[in-house]
Specification:
Length: 221
């Protein structure tokens, strides 16, 4: 049977106007967050029009990211080595741990170059409505770093926890839960400051940001 005829029969069987391999690619791309059917179709046709070498590079990158990238066993940040370079860096302040929700938050903060302590990634936030409890996150591993110095890099017991969770209802609820658990252990708990962005204008700032700015006002010297 000619290949074109086989392709047409395959397309008819799966109810799509596209050849089966194309339809399979579209369906796979459409499962990605924020990618709808139309966007998936555009991406699939971009791959089809691209040179075979570019498609091979894309396939190799997808394969490598699954094989080579993992979560650090200490802080759960993304890494190729275990522990991650931040946890393994002896020049970092190992007594200070900045707690975030996702690896991308850790990466964004690290790019500022301001925080010189360690991190801990919760891999989410407590959300009772979504069925997410503390047991679903890496909170037990976080608290173990404060309870047992051997679980923290360099065998140093952290004395400060910086809460860097997102300013949402779930983020604030998670922060309150963590603050309670950490204070039981005699840990100094702080949180990232909230307020007006530098260069911004009051008329364009949300009520929540304004409220945080007023509550966190500082004395002028």
């Amino acid at each position: 049977m000619p290949s074109k005829q086989r392709d047409n029969q395959g397309s008819a069987r799966n109810g799509s106007a596209y050849p089966e391999p194309v339809e399979r690619l579209i369906e796979t791309l459409a499962r990605l967050p924020g990618i709808g059917r139309r966007t998936a179709e555009r991406l699939a046709f971009y791959v089809l029009k691209s040179p075979a070498e570019e498609a091979d590079r894309l396939a190799a990158a997808l394969r490598d990211v699954k094989r080579a990238v993992r979560h650090c066993r200490v802080c759960y940040n993304l890494t190729q080595s275990d522990p991650c370079p931040i946890c393994a860096d002896g020049s970092r302040d190992r007594a200070s741990v900045l707690i975030v929700e996702q690896p991308k938050d850790c990466i964004a903060l690290e790019q500022t170059g301001v925080h010189r302590g360690l991190y801990h990634v919760l891999m989410g936030r407590i959300s009772p409505l979504d069925g997410v409890t503390p047991a679903h996150l890496t909170i037990d591993d976080l608290l173990a770093r404060f309870d047992d110095p051997s679980r923290n890099p360099g065998g140093v017991r952290p004395t400060e926890a910086v809460l860097g969770l997102n300013p949402t209802l779930e983020g604030d609820g998670t922060a309150l839960y963590l603050a309670g658990e950490l204070r039981k252990r005699g840990v100094a708990v702080t949180r990232l400051a909230r307020g007006l962005p530098s260069g911004g204008q009051l008329e364009y700032v949300s009520r929540a940001v304004l409220a945080d700015a007023i509550a966190g006002r500082q004395r002028m010297e």
